[in-house]
Each structure stands twice: as C-alpha cells, then as structure tokens.
Amino acid sequence: MITIKDMADMLGISTTTVSNVIHGKTSEVSQKTVEKVEKLLKEYDYVPNNSARSLTQKCSKIIGVSLKGRKDQYDNIIADPFFSVLLGAIESEIRSRGYFMMIYTSDDISELIRNILTWNVDGLILLGILHDDFVKIKSRYKNPIVLIDSYAPRDIMNYVNVGLDDEKGAYEMTLHLLDRGHRRIAFLADNMEGVDYIRYIGHQKALAKYGLKADSKDLLIIRPGTAEREASMEELFYLSRNYTVFMCCSDYWAALLMSYFSDRGVRIPEDLSFTGFDDVLLSRIIRPALTTVRQDPAKRGRLAVNTLIKMIQEEEIPEWDVKLPIELVVRDSVKTISAYGSYSQENDMSGSCNDGNADE
Amino acid sequence: MITIKDMADMLGISTTTVSNVIHGKTSEVSQKTVEKVEKLLKEYDYVPNNSARSLTQKCSKIIGVSLKGRKDQYDNIIADPFFSVLLGAIESEIRSRGYFMMIYTSDDISELIRNILTWNVDGLILLGILHDDFVKIKSRYKNPIVLIDSYAPRDIMNYVNVGLDDEKGAYEMTLHLLDRGHRRIAFLADNMEGVDYIRYIGHQKALAKYGLKADSKDLLIIRPGTAEREASMEELFYLSRNYTVFMCCSDYWAALLMSYFSDRGVRIPEDLSFTGFDDVLLSRIIRPALTTVRQDPAKRGRLAVNTLIKMIQEEEIPEWDVKLPIELVVRDSVKTISAYGSYSQENDMSGSCNDGNADE
DNA sequence: GCCATATCTTTGATCGTTATCATATAACAC
DNA sequence: GTGTTATATGATAACGATCAAAGATATGGC
Questions:
Q1: Strand locations in A84-152, DSSP E?
Q2: Chain B contact probe: residue of A59, A70, A76 with most B CBs at under 10 A
Q3: Domain extent for A74
Q4: Which of A71, A66, A107 is closest to A86 using CA atoms?
Q5: If exposure means fewest CB atoms within 10 Å of the residue's CB, which of A190, A270, B185, B195 is most exposed?
Q6: Is the residue at A55 inside a domain?
Q7: CB under 8 Å to A277, separation ≥6 — which residues?
Q8: How does pLDDT run across A10-19, given as a tens digit for each residue?
C-alpha cells in the first residue's frame, strides 16, 4: 500500500502538499504540482488509510447500526423480513453518502457501547431499542442517534425518532375489523414497549369509538426466543378458539401462525381471520394474502440515514419525532362476519345497526 | 474518552506499563502496579481506540462481507430470505470471535476494493461473487478470502470456498422429478456463473441417467433488476405452458412465481409443479409447501467465519473447497404424473418401465 | 563491595494522516 | 531599496496505541 509519504518522497515534495491536493485544496498548490501529484495518485491508485484519518480527525466516517427485536428460527434478527429490507435500504444509503456501516445485533448493550466507542462511530441508528438500553447508550455516547421503531422519550436530547404513525395504523386496522363484524379480537404483540405499545393505544381508541373496551386478557404477548417459539404457538393455538381474528403486530408472525394453524386444520379466514403489520413481500405471497398495514421501509431507511448525517454535519433538524404515513392494505385474510351486520357506510352489505354492542 | 496516556499520567507511570496490563502481560509488571492500573481501567471504563490500534499493528479486526446477487423489489440484496439468514449467522459469529463486520452490497467492484483497502480489513467473505470480479479483487487485496456461493477457480491462492454439494442437490432434485413422471422440466437460474452452473451440471447428469439430454431452450435465465422483474415473470408465464415443472435455483423465485402464476389461474401443482433451493422459512409457510433442497445457512455462515479467522491467524486449512451436505425435502409442490408411471424402486406405484424415453 | 541475574519501568520511534504555523519565493507599489 | 501582499511549500507536532530496546531497581552469590 502506497502512502502519502511515499509519494511525497518520490516527487521530492512534502506530505502536506500531497495531502492538500488529495483534499482539493488546489488554491494553495501550484498548477504544476497538482498535476504531478494527481498523475501519481492515479498511477498507484492511492487509497487513504482511514484508521489514520479517524485518528487525527474527530470523525471516523462510520455509522453504527444496532438491531434488536424478533428473532427467526436461527435466533437471527437480520433474517426478519421487515428488518432486512430496512437494513438493506440503510446500507445502500450509508454507502452512497460516503460513509461506512458497522452492524451490531448483540443483546449485550455493554458490548454495543464498547464497540461504538472503540471505533468512535460518527452516528448511530438504533432499531427496536428498549428504553433502558437507550438511556444507557446515551450516558456514554454523545454523538447523534436516530431511532427506528423504538420508544422515544422526550427528555433526552440529540436524537431523532424516525417512526410511523403506528397509532393510526392500529386504529384503522381495528376499525376495519370492527367494520367487518369482528368483536372477539386478539391483539398480538412482541412486547409492550416501543411501537407495539403505541399500536395498542390506537387499538384501544378504535374499540372505544365502537363503545367497546379493550380487555387485557385479549392482549397476547408472543414470547421471543427460539426455544419458546413452539410452546408459544401452541398456546396461541389453544387460545385462538376464543377469537374471530388475530391482529398481529408483524406480517412475520401473522404468516408463521397462519401456516402453523392451517396445518392443524384451522381454515383461514373462515375459522379465524388474521392481520399483519409492515406489508413485507411475504404477505403478498402467502394464501390467503394478508390484510396488513403498509409502510415503506426503503424510504424510512433512507430518511433515517439522511437525518443522521445532517445531525453529524450539525445542520438544523426540523423535526424531532417524524411519523411516516401508513396505509391499510385489505387482502383476503379477514372474513366478513355477516351475523353482526355491517358497520361502515361504504360496505355494500345491509344489516342491523347495533353499533357499539360488545358480543361477550 | 480516556486514553492510555491519561491513565499513565494519573498514576505517574509510563504508557507502556498500562498497555502491558491491558494486554495481560502481567509477568512484566509488578502485582502492585497491575492492581492500580486495573482499578483505574474499571473506574473509567476504558475502551481502546481501534483506529490507533490498527495503525500500529497490521490488523484491523475488521472482516469485510460483500453480497452480490438476487435483488428484491427494493433492489435490496440483504432482504433476500436466504442471504439474510446467512448474513445473520456471519454477523453473530464475527462478533463472538471478537471481530467487527463491515458490509458492502455495491455492484461497483472498484468501490468495494477501495473500501476494503481503506480500512485494511483482515479478511473478506464474498457471497455470490462472479469470476472476473474475484480476480480483480485478488489482484489488489492480499489478505485471506472465503467464498460462498461462488465459482471457485483453482489457480488462485489464499482463499477457501465454503460451498454446498450443489451438483448433488440438483441431481437428486431432478431424479425426484423424473421419478414422479416429469419429462418437460424447465431449469430456472439466476445466471450461468457460479453455483447455478454447477447445479445445471447435476441436472444434466440426472437427465442423462434417464437417457435424456438437457436442451438449452429449457434453461431459463431470470433477468435480475427491479425494472425487468415484471417482464421476466410474464415471459416465464408465457413459457410455462411448455413444461410440467419449474425447477428453480432459489426458494425465493419459486415462491414469487408461484404466487404470480396462481393469481393468473394456474393451479399448483396440478397444472404446474415447482421446486426450490435453500429451504428458507418461506418455503414452509407458502401453500402448497415447497419441495426444495435443504441447506443449513447458519452452519455455513459460522464455518465461513471460522475458516477465515483460521486463515487470518495463519493456521493450517485442511480443505480448499468445502462442500457441505444438502438434503432433498419433499413437500407438496410437485405433482406425480401417473401417465408416465414410476421409475424409482422405492416408489409404491407400479407402472410401465419405459426407462429413458424422452416424451417430446 | 562487585558483578550477575532477574524483575520492573521508561524512552523513543513508529504507523499514516492532518493541522498549525512558519518560511520561502515572487510580484508589485512606493 | 524597502515594505506589503499573495502564493506556494515545508517543518513539526499531534492523534492513540504498540513495540523494541535501553535503563533502573532489586535480589542474590561470592
């Protein structure tokens, strides 16, 4: 590997001059020298040493990305169909902006903190971080942070939340289900922190609009971890007879449960309806195609990166808590229960209008 | 951020002594000094600066991972269900071995080379790299390389291929199809370099065993890129009437085509059978469940990382070209065509034994 | 007291790059 | 010729960690 010093020696000039040419500070260097240096740069295909650069400057040009959340059958979060799309968008945007990406998926927050400090990363994108972990990171790491799918406390500074209108998403989905006659709705969440909590609020509000009250026993938490997965699905299978629809907080779980249940003789949506969240490719491929809430993960990833880089470059950030729009996507996984009649104006079915009566 | 020098000054000792304690060279340091230093290390939660480390030592503790291949609807390769599982396994193994991962998904090989040189990464894992690009990388980058799903030329040194028994996989799958009476088999590949080529050889050999000859018109290449996707699927839909089965080189494409086709009235497997490759979660979730070739991506990722680290640490590598075992997984996406009878001994159907007659 | 050995500690150079400051040269005005 | 400015270039010291080699101190033998 050729260095600046090598080239300076070859041309009989100082390293400063070579460095200036590399950085385009050509106003300080004579035209003749610029040409000599540029010729050599091309000839040897000079590549700067970024370790040396980040040592003298305060910035490393590295953006750290941490993922935490749902795991697949290999205990692997990157394989999650939603996270992987988001991650891909983040990676390509980071690269095209001239930065480098380092990924951490560890559950060990101390390890994450050590990693970001040891490389002095310029900024951090945290996916699905929990509140306590976020506070821990903030206490040690002072550079800008962008959150995605996380609970965003107002009392901490120098970060931005790039979120969705989660509340509205769950609200509209719940309304859709009520509209189609569903009253026994199970709400399936990964945990009760972060976005799932916000979605649950939307769910409650929609129920309230129909004069119904959310019952905590209808809030089903999917236990994470590979070992518990089978047990969790079996338990949900047992509980499913109490409901007409499973409203899931991710397409991933909806699809997984749909295949598990249909293997056990449950007809979908005749016996049990399903809805998801995210609108990943999967939800279009499975049959019945999944009714879900669409977001644009590619756009979201790009926005997260560009916001972070703005913060790194100390530009003004207009919004502290961005809420990207969502869209209800109706497909075939929700049955219309005519016994309850129709509750929506645009629905073509005519029926009774016993609005607001719980069925239990 | 506290540095070694800060701590040395605080204790009135030299940086060398502090450095020795950090590296566990306690034989050279008095017990008393060790205790003093360790107390300070804990108190300030010292984290070394890796840029400075990689500057003095030849190693950066970074492993580069490059992905190239199938893209999803967002032109995103990380979202590919197979690559993402592999990537997740690679990430967690790299991390648990004390290394750091940097990802590159760019199609621009010059950019990739600049990136790995600028960080002086200790080793490289290349997924789905094409031959010419590999040669280019090799000409500039001299550290160890591990290939996954790539064509592995014998005349280049200092790399290991962590592959599958791709030929056997395609061979067994083709035999299975022939066994079930299929004669009009389309072979769908992403490209004709790398693993798909090797799989095609297995396919040809299986056909030959039945006295059949592979026809190049039955080799269908799926055009990559988002823009061409729809056109490519439509073209395949048009061609599908010539075949009884689509033998795909990935579950991803099989699942995608199955949903596209069934939306257009094709009954699967009655009208057209499908097979995949990889056995990703998707293939268990879709209906009909996909007959495919199983590999263990988590194991493969771990093996790739551990092999690379062995090479970095200059240990002996036993094998140059590892071929991990595969397994045929028969599910519901392949119809048995009784008109042709059975060709296998273990098949319970009795029928004619016109072994080796092509049907066209 | 002298030397040898073992144990502990420091000095100073190094990695590749960048920033600050100083210096050299040239051009021009008076 | 002197002073002023502009332009071009160089010397040097960081950045934080590591390492080889040299120096310092303690211990023991005779």
A1: 100-104, 123-127, 145-148
A2: A76
A3: 62-164+298-321
A4: A66
A5: A270
A6: no
A7: A169, A170, A173, A199, A248, A249, A250, A251, A254, A292, A293
A8: 999 999 999 9
Based on the fold, state whether residues A231 and A336 are members of the same structural domain: yes
Interchain contact, A104 vs B95, CB within 8 Å: yes
Instruction: Please state, for a pLDDT cut of 90, what percent of chain A lies above it.
Output: 73
Considering only CB atoms, which chain A residues are within 8 Å of B104?
95
On whether both A248 and A186 belong to a single domain, the answer is: yes
A101-105, A327-331, A345-349: least confidently modelled range: A345-349
Residue A356 maps to a domain: no
Q: Note whether A100 and A80 are same-domain residues.
A: yes
If you search the block for the tokens 């560009």, which residue do you land on? A306
Q: In chain B, what percentage of residues exceed pLDDT 90?
A: 73
Residue with tokens 């009884």: B244
> Do residue B269 and residue B331 come from a single domain?
yes
Chain B residues 239-298 within an 8 A CB cutoff of chain A: 255-256, 258-259, 262, 281-282, 284-287, 297-298
Q: What is the pTM of this model?
A: 0.89
Question: CB of B72 within 8 Å of any CB in chain A?
Answer: yes
Note the pLDDT tens digit of each residue in A164-219. Answer: 999 999 999 999 999 999 999 999 998 888 889 999 999 999 999 999 999 999 99
* A32-CA/D3-C1' distance, Å: 29
CB contact (8 A) between residue B92 and residue A76: yes
Residue B339 pLDDT level (bands cut at 50, 70, 90) = low
State whether the beta carbon of B56 lies below 7 angstroms from any atom of strand C: yes
The integer distance in angstroms from the CA atom of B185 to the C1' atom of D1 is: 97
Total domains present in chain B: 3
Statement to judge: residues B153 and B208 lie in one domain: no
Are residues A131 and A181 both part of a single domain?
Answer: no
Residues A237 and A104 in one domain: no
Residue B352 forms part of a structural domain: no
* CATH number of the structural domain spanning residue A235: 3.40.50.2300
CB proximity A312–strand C (7 Å threshold): no
**Residues from chain A contacting residue B286 (CB–CB below 8 Å):** 259, 285-287
Residue B247, domain member (yes or no)? yes
